[in-house]
Write a structure and sequence with these properties.
Elements lengths: L2 E5 L4 E4 L22 E5 L3 E9 L5 E9 L6 E8 L5 E12 L5 E10 L3 E3 L6 E8 L5 E11 L8 E2 L3 E6 L10 E2 L2 E8 L6 E7 L6 E3 L8 E10 L4 E7 L3 E2 L4 E3 H4 L9 E8 L4 E9 L7 E2 L3 E8 L5 E10 L5 E3 L8 E9 L10 E2 L3 E2 L5 E3 H5 L8 E8 L4 E10 L26 E4 L6 E6 L6 E7 L5 E8 L5 E5 L6 E9 L2 E9 L1
Length: 513
């Protein structure tokens, strides 16, 4: 895996190793010096470390350096700076000098090579740079000097930057297993009652990819992985599935397709990444998160009603009051880890007893849409003054919320926002906004033409017969109050299209074929 590090400090420090050469920790006396502007562009994997050094002013400072986990020669480096006011030429000279474990330099710097001279034009402050590859050696300091010159009625003399030191020391070539889960909703620490061990459990989305990314593992020439079910109380594994050894660098793998016993809610699992024939391993814990249900429905105001029961007790109901001009939406934003859901709507009487027929989405497999249009689901207009019950339920495990609402006749000044009260008034005549859709039926492009509009911004939403939103976009009307949408990617069928412009919403039916 390629990683890029931009170094903004005044130096770069890397640690590598050669088994045939003497190696030692970088002595504190080998301090970096010079200018900034270097980045490492290399497949070598690094750890960030820090060293406390004394700067030229006598103050202690933290020096940043990098331990290379694996031999990455040759390494790719880049030097950059900003361009001056004139045309500029630049190249880089590279020198090296060995040092001993006491921090003393040996001999004099040895010239290695120069990069090709490049000419730069353009605005002042434009970044300019050059790059080079370098096969580094342990216990060696590399001196990098940039040479630049400008053109002012001819090329000026070359000027040299303050030299940079890149110090290389030990290299740790031990494999280091590492990785992370995708689609993590949250983490939770859980303690084994029998052993006292603590597991950091990653809670995954039931609708996620069930993918583990092991590509941050380093220094591996072969690796493998295993998945087990874990009994937290006894800290024992069962139903273990082990992969074969895989040559090369670690990558991602799909846990669900690999594990033959199934990944179920309510169970704890462990993924073990092994690098280097079992000597180096690391465990990661996960579970499929139980469903979290969050929902609310549209209202303009709320009414609390209390009814006495036959047993002499009281039941309390919250009735969401809705203005006749507004749509009724079930908002499910915040619901997590749901693989099946159902929404039901049915009338109730003044005693909140069920009457009439129930309309339901049926049990739908998959994620819950963020909004369910209850009017589109119900299919016919809601009766003014009639109370309705909405049941929103998810499975695995089963969780249910119940809401009640009714539509009330209201004057135009009572038309309000989707959730909560607003004081904005509208013109009664604006309720009759006319919308023309063509072609209808359509295969892909649908033109929407309004006879007039109170705003140039329109929100277009398509819902299916279950109330599921299949398409949504915010678009700008042109000067003729017209816009075009492309619905080629949605499935063939009958849909309701809601066109919201300013305070007005119009719903029509379209056919996609």
């Amino acid at each position: 895996m390629k990683k890029i590090f931009i170094i903004t400090a005044a130096f770069i420090l890397f640690l590598v190793n050669d088994s045939n050469a003497q190696s030692c920790e970088v002595p504190a006396s080998i301090v970096p010096e010079g200018i900034s502007g270097f980045s490492l562009m290399s497949t070598g994997k690094v750890d960030t470390s820090y060293m406390t050094v004394t700067n030229p002013y006598g103050f202690e400072a933290s020096a940043t350096y990098y331990n290379l986990k694996c031999q990455g020669n040759p390494l790719h480096f880049m030097y950059y700076r900003t361009k001056g006011p004139t045309k500029t030429q630049m190249y880089v000279e590279v020198y090296k000098q060995e040092y001993d474990c006491d921090g003393d330099y040996i001999g004099s710097p040895q010239y290695l090579f120069s990069t090709t001279t490049k000419t730069y034009k353009g605005a002042v402050g434009k970044p300019i740079g050059t790059s080079f590859y370098l096969a580094v050696e342990p216990n060696t300091s590399y001196w990098v000097i940039s040479k630049t010159r400008g053109n002012f009625f001819g090329w000026l003399p070359w000027s040299a930057s303050t030299s940079n030191k890149m110090v290389f020391g030990e290299f740790n070539n031990a494999p280091s297993p590492s990785g992370n889960f995708e689609d993590v909703l949250s983490t939770e620490s859980k303690v084994s009652t029998g052993t006292g061990y603590t597991a950091l459990v990653h809670q995954l989305d039931v609708n996620g990819s069930y993918t583990f990314d092991a590509s941050s593992t380093s220094c591996e020439n072969e690796w493998r992985y295993e998945i087990s079910e874990l009994d937290l109380a006894t800290w024992t594994k069962s139903n273990t599935k082990i992969s074969s050894w895989i040559e090369g660098e670690a990558t991602t793998f799909n846990m669900e397709s690999f594990y033959p016993y199934g990944l179920d809610k309510g169970k704890l699992y462990t993924v073990k990444i092994i690098a280097g024939h079992g000597w180096y391993s690391k465990n990661y814990f996960f579970e499929i998160k139980n469903a979290k249900l969050v929902g609310n429905i549209s209202f303009n105001s709320k009414t609390e009603e209390t009814l006495a029961t036959i047993e002499g007790k009281f039941k309390h109901y919250v009735l969401n009051e809705r203005c006749q001009y507004n749509s009724m939406i079930l908002n499910t934003t915040g619901t997590e880890s749901v693989d099946k859901y159902r929404v039901r709507v049915q009338p109730v009487n003044a005693s909140y007893s069920l009457i009439g027929s129930e309309v339901s989405t049926g049990i739908v497999t998959g994620m819950v849409p963020e909004e369910v249009n209850l009017g589109a689901l119900y299919g016919t207009s809601f009766v003014l003054g009639q109370r309705y019950r909405v049941v929103y339920e998810v499975t695995s495990p089963g969780t249910t919320e119940i809401y009640y609402f009714r539509y009330s006749k209201c004057s135009p000044k009572g038309v309000e926002s989707k959730f909560g009260k607003t004081s904005k008034k509208i013109n009664p005549l604006e309720q009759s906004m006319d919308v023309v859709l063509y072609p209808n039926p359509t295969r892909n492009m649908l033109n929407i033409k309004l006879d007039r509009a109170s705003s140039f911004q329109a929100k277009i939403t398509l819902v299916d017969f279950t109330g599921k939103t299949v398409f949504s976009t915010d678009r700008q009307l042109d000067r003729n109050n017209k816009l075009t949408i492309d619905i080629a990617d949605i499935a063939d069928g009958v849909y309701f299209i809601n066109i919201a412009v300013g305070t007005e919403t119009v719903r029509k039916k379209i056919v996609k074929f």
